[in-house]
Amino acid sequence: MGPYEYVVEQIDGDYAQLRRTDGQEDEPKLVARALLPDDIAEGTKLRYEMFEYTIAEA
User: Fold this and answer.
1) Which of 4, 19, 24, 40 has a CB 3.0–4.6 Å from the CB of 48, allowing a cystine?
2) Element (H or E) spanning 45, and its range?
3) pLDDT digits (tens, 9 = 90+) for 1-29
């Protein structure tokens, strides 16, 4: 499954809104912060693969 590339658009308490960077989805995806790496911030690029989010290499 994947890989898919996302960017963190907004962090709101225990949730973050992610947007796919390849343009396949128009709506942001709401994801629980518990499923994301601890050190994310707005603008962080993430990679989703094998049911796991990791910070994407620049």
Assistant:
1) 4
2) strand 45-49
3) 679 999 999 999 999 999 999 877 789 99
**38: DSSP letter:** T
- Structural domain boundaries enclosing 25: 4-55
Q: How far apart are the first and last CA of the chain?
A: 22
| 34 three-class SS | helix
**46 bridge partner residues:** 6, 55
Helix (H, G, I), strand (E, B) or coil at 7: strand
For the entire predicted model, the pTM comes to 0.88
Question: Of residues 43 and 22, which shows the higher confidence score?
Answer: 43
In the numeric block, which tokens belong to residue 41?
């911030």
Q: Tell me, what CATH number does 36's domain have? A: 2.40.50
**Token digits of residue 35:** 């499923």
